[in-house]
Amino acid sequence: MPILLFGSRHLGLITGAKTTTIRKIWKTPLSPGDRLHCYWNLVSKEREKLFEAEVTDVEVVKFADLIQNDALAREEGFKNASELESEFRKMYPEHVNDESLYQVIRFFKLPIEEWEGTQINEKAMITKRADIFFDIGKFDKSVICYTAALKIDPNDVYLLNKKGDNLSRLGEFNEALKCYDQALIKEPNNEYIWNNKAIALLNSNKPIDALKASDKAMEINDSNLVVLYWRGFIFEMLEQYDKALECYDQILKLNPDNSEAWNAKGNLLTQIDRAEDALECYDRSLELCLESDPDASTWNRKGNALMELNRFKEALECYNSALSLEPENEVFLSNKGVAFMELNHFEKAMQCFRKVLIINPENDDAQILLDECLDNL
Fold first, then answer.
1. Tally of CB atoms within 10 A around 368
2. Helix axes of 259-271 and 241-254: crossing angle, nearest 10 degrees
3. How far apart are CA 59 and CA 57, in angstroms?
4. Is 352 helix (H, G, I), strand (E, B) or coil?
5. What is the CA radius of gyration of the chain?
6. For residues 184 and 190, is the Cβ–Cβ distance under 8 A?
7. Phi/psi at 55 (nearest 5 deg)?
8. Residue 98 — φ and ψ, nearest 5°?
9. 20 to 30 A from 208, CA-CA: which of 12, 45, 94, 259?
């Protein structure tokens, strides 16, 4: 019973696009008609069954020929033969002489009802793989998996919603909206899907349509913190700032310890020139963040609010706190440089802008500010 292990690079196994694999030759080479048991070889010790397959063809090739064959390399999931060679030299360090033999195995994925071994819930297996990719931010891979799972069950609302989320993160908002609309046909009272649709519409530069979708979510549950948060952001995009503040205040009424809402309210108050009030929000957000993980962006935003109040020394302390968490952040460094300029500490400001330009030589703003410092020395 030959067993083949595959890594997550081989997503074509899920879609059915991959029907070939290349392995060093075994003591008992495979033959057409042999049964394969195929598994994911996870980083953890778990092995998860993919499917069973039947070998349809086996071709034996020398390593010297294999590393010249771009077409075969692409079948195996590599960009070209050079990439295959590099990987195989790591995988099979004792099997990379010109005469070393490899078997190119072609196979046919068998229907579950024809398996010899334990049958699996294929939809659940693919969905689990998709969720893993989604959680680690590999949205291009997770959308492939969700699409494959939807071929098994086209009406699964969870899958439709998750595929929409993936497509939104990939900037494919129109396709995402199709997924959300299909999901809403099945579950018209799902406030989370209405909210996701609102986010996709907002990202499509359709804030009025986004508000209509948010209205639907609010009709279902007007106490949903996630819906309220995004509703506030939609009102901001529509420049209806009073209504946006109402949303953030409603969140904080329901949950006074919501650091994101304090942050959002602070950002909005800064935008409408209420810097003193914004500071109170940032301080509250920082108190909550510091109870767990410090938040560099909030330190930076508090520094910006203090700059507007001409409290430059206090702003510097905030930027230093932000930079202690993200020392290579060019935005934080530039802000710190500007604070030094306001305090007439031009040499210290120049050090900040020079570091920015080391990180990003194309930062034109930093170059202009550096030149201005030189003019003031």
1. 11
2. 160
3. 7
4. helix
5. 28
6. yes
7. -70, 130
8. -55, -35
9. 259
**At which residue do the structure tokens 């392995």 appear?**
23
All residues at 6 or more sequence positions from 227 whose CB lies less than 8 Å from its CB, including other chains: 191, 194, 195, 214, 217, 218, 221
Determine the Cα–Cα distance for residues 42 and 50; give it in Å rounded to an integer.
12
Q: What is the pLDDT of residues 264-274, one digit of tens each?
A: 998 899 888 88
Query: What is the tally of helices (H) and strands (E) in the chain?
Result: 19, 5
Cα end-to-end distance, the chain, whole Å: 78
Contact 130, 145 (CB under 8 A): yes
C-alpha 155: how far from its chain's center? 25
How far apart, in whole angstroms, are the C-alpha atoms of residue 87 and residue 79? 11
Yes or no: say if 37 and 1 are a contact pair by the CB < 8 Å rule: yes
Number of CB atoms found within 10 A of residue 376's CB: 10
- In the sheet that holds 20-24, the strands lie side by side as 3-6, 35-41, 47-62, 101-109, 20-24
Full DSSP string of 256-315: TT-HHHHHHHHHHHHHTT-HHHHHHHHHHHHHHHHTSS--HHHHHHHHHHHHHTT-HHHH
For the chain, give the longest Cα–Cα distance: 82
Give the residue-averaged pLDDT of 153-182: 94
- Nearest-angstrom CA–CA distance, 316 and 22: 58
**Alpha-carbon span 377 to 165, nearest angstrom:** 52
Phi/psi of residue 241, nearest 5 degrees:
-70, -35
Can you tell me which residue has the tokens 């003591």? 27
Prediction pTM value:
0.68
Question: Is the Cβ–Cβ distance between 197 and 220 less than 8 Å?
Answer: no
What is the token pair recorded at 343? 């305090």
**Nearest C-alpha neighbor of 214 from the set 247, 261, 186:** 247
Arithmetic mean of pLDDT, 99-121: 89
Taking the CB of residue 154, how many other CB atoms lie within 10 A of it? 10
Query: Could you report the per-residue pLDDT of 194-221, keeping only the tens digit for each?
Result: 999 999 999 999 999 999 999 999 999 9
Average pLDDT over residues 131-160: 90
Amino acid at 30: L
The CATH class that applies to domain 3-118 reads mainly beta
Q: Quick one: pLDDT at residue 44?
A: 47
